[in-house]
Amino acid sequence: MCAILLLSSIGVNACAAETEFAVASIRPSDPNGPATRPRTGPMAFFRRASLKDLIGLAYDIERFQIVGGPNWLEQQRYDVDAKTETPASHAEILQMLRSLLQHRFNLKAHSDSQPMAVYALIVEHRREQLLDAAIETPRDGIGAIQVGSSDVRGRGVTMRLLARYLAIELGRPVLNETGLDGHYDFTVSFGDVKPPEDSPESFGSLSFAIKDLGLKLQSKRAAVPVLIIDSAVPPSAN
């Protein structure tokens, strides 16, 4: 997913029909079926995913960036199984998913921006806990964040990923204004000190623990890229 709010626009129709799955099946989910994480690759599947979930994945945006649409956009759940004819990159898989949504859900949408209350992620005073990623850490992704019961570990993490994680945790857009463009390793403890009453961070969360990295969240208002859903219909038959 493009970095949270690093999009200047959201490409809705560009190259929409150039890449498609070779085979794709969409069916209503069993409400008692297991929920699994989406998997992409030569075989891509999504379990118990709402259309809103699929849109977020396809256009690499967060839920609060999806505006409008019918009520069932979030309520109805689907299982999607798809296969590529030849090996495909992650970006190509997302393009195929966009095409699938446009063809099978008749999804029509356009990009815009709306003013919202956001947090800006800034560097207050970078501390030694925020290390340049180890040499053996892969540089071809945005890294990984693992949250435990008492600490948070980041490996090869970009500020793009950190901002996205914080946005999900706080339910509000987070702008990466750190100016840091590398990959970083860190381990921070939640500790037993509660945040100030006027702090946006919740106790025991990464959003509070980042103070140990010399990072800070500031409240502000800014124009946020959004995807406005013009129309959608239940999926056509397989």
The gross shape turns out to be globular
The whole-angstrom Rg is 19 Å
* Main sheet specs: 4 strands, mixed
- Poorly predicted spans: 1-18, 192-196, 200-204
If you average the pLDDT, what whole number results? 81
Q: How many strands appear in the DSSP assignment?
A: 11
Distance between the termini: 27 Å
Helix content: 10-25%
Going across the biggest sheet, name each strand in turn: 3-11-5-9
What class, by secondary structure content? alpha+beta
Which strand-content bin applies to the residues? 25-35%
Helices and strands, in order, run as EEHEHEHEEEEHEEHE
Number of helices: 5
Walkthrough of the structure:
It is a single chain. The protein has 238 residues and is an alpha+beta fold. It contains five helices and eleven strands. The chain has helices at residues 51-59, 72-75, 90-104, 159-170, 206-209; strands spanning 23-28, 43-50, 66-68, 77-83, 108-123, 131-132, 144-147, 151-157, 174-176, 184-189, 215-231. It has a four-stranded mixed β-sheet. Strands 6-10-8-7 form a four-stranded antiparallel β-sheet, covered by helices on one side. Strands 1-4-2 form a three-stranded antiparallel β-sheet. A hairpin with a 3-residue loop joins strand 7 and strand 8 (151-157). Helix 1 (51-59) crosses helix 3 (90-104). Mean pLDDT is 81; it is low at 1-18, 192-196 and 200-204.
